[in-house]
Structure to design on (366 residues):
């Protein structure tokens, strides 16, 4: 199979490395990146077999092409590739928003005589680091990978992409583009905005003694961790998914206003229900840490998902008398680093575990 990858950053580089790891004998990967050093590094490491000099005829034999560029440039990449790609070629992206991009791409495809397919893709994984140097051959393991096929996409074409996602070690989920944008606005985009707004609140409310800054180093820092994400990426996401995000913001503001009114009326039962219902619902989430965030100290470990990896790390920590409160694979880890999430009841245990794991060559994020 001939595979093209446009953009050899964190995601594109990881796709290349993973496919070479699991499918090396049966795949020929052509890579393109505006950063020639990244492309050269990928070729040197064997992640790709050929460096394309432009978006043109070098991609003519590709069966699948991954477009790993910012959302704002996906349609332009498709337009440049279309005259050269083979019939029945599958084009797919890795962007965080889908409906607006897919509409643009569908308009381009409908105006062209060549038969090609576009299936939107969104791997729900990432890292606080970026670029080819941060890519790995296990980034996608046990991560959700959303696919949003265009209307009329044949079942066998979608099946090919689902199998491709499974080869990456990810879990394919098929959604309608509009629902994808709504869902990601609710569970990913809005939380990032809220986290950043909370940080702004502390910054703006803090006094000359910086007491809030000092106090925020505890649980507040934990719940606003995602505010440290790449601002360029989030600028692009907010502008490309404006309508769903705006709707979510309005609903969230309404819920805050309602709670403010409940607080003003001193309705103790309603206040209790507010927290109780939220807590009970959150406890049904499959991979959440079911503890008060102020009492849980969490690290993320970038470890290859292989049989016994959880037991191996748990045994290592246990042998050094480090008590684990919770441990598990993080399925939805977009813009967060690490495959394993480990929670501890004490900060001292977290620090001890961090140093121990680093000593044993694990990459650890706090």
């Amino acid at each position: 199979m001939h595979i093209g990858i446009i953009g050899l950053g964190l995601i594109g580089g990881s796709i290349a490395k993973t496919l070479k790891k699991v499918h090396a004998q049966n795949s020929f990967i052509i890579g393109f990146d505006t950063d020639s050093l990244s492309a050269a590094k990928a070729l040197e490491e064997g992640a790709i077999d050929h460096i394309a000099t432009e978006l043109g005829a070098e991609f003519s034999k590709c069966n699948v092409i991954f477009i790993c560029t910012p959302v704002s440039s996906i349609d332009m990449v498709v337009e440049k590739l279309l005259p050269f790609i083979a019939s029945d070629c599958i084009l797919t992206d890795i962007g965080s928003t889908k409906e607006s991009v897919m509409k643009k791409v569908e308009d381009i495809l409908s105006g062209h005589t060549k038969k090609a397919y576009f299936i939107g893709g969104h791997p729900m994984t990432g890292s606080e680091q970026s670029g080819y140097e941060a890519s790995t051959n296990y980034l996608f393991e046990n991560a959700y990978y959303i696919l949003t096929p265009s209307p009329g996409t044949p079942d066998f074409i979608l099946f090919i992409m689902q199998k491709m996602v499974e080869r990456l070690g990810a879990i394919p989920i098929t959604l309608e583009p509009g629902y994808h944008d709504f869902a990601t606005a609710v569970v990913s985009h809005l939380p990032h905005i809220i986290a950043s707004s909370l940080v702004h609140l502390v910054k703006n409310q803090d006094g000359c003694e910086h007491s809030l800054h000092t106090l925020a180093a505890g649980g507040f820092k934990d719940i606003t961790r995602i505010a440290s994400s790449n601002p360029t990426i989030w600028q692009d996401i907010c502008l490309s998914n404006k309508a769903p995000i705006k709707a979510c913001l309005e609903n969230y503001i309404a819920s805050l206003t309602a709670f403010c009114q409940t607080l003003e009326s001193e309705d103790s039962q309603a206040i209790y229900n507010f927290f109780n219902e939220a807590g009970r619902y959150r406890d049904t989430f499959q991979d959440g840490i079911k503890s008060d965030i102020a009492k849980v100290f969490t690290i993320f470990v970038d470890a290859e998902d292989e049989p016994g990896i959880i037991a191996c790390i748990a045994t290592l920590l246990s042998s050094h008398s480090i008590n684990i409160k919770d441990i598990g694979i993080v399925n939805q880890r977009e813009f967060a680093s690490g495959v394993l999430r480990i929670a501890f009841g004490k900060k001292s245990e977290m620090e001890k575990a961090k140093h121990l794991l680093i000593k044993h060559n694990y990459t650890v994020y706090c």
Notes: Residues 317 and 353 are 6 Å apart (CA to CA). The longest strand covers residues 116-123. Residues 288-295 have pLDDT under 50 and may be disordered. The longest helix spans residues 177-205.
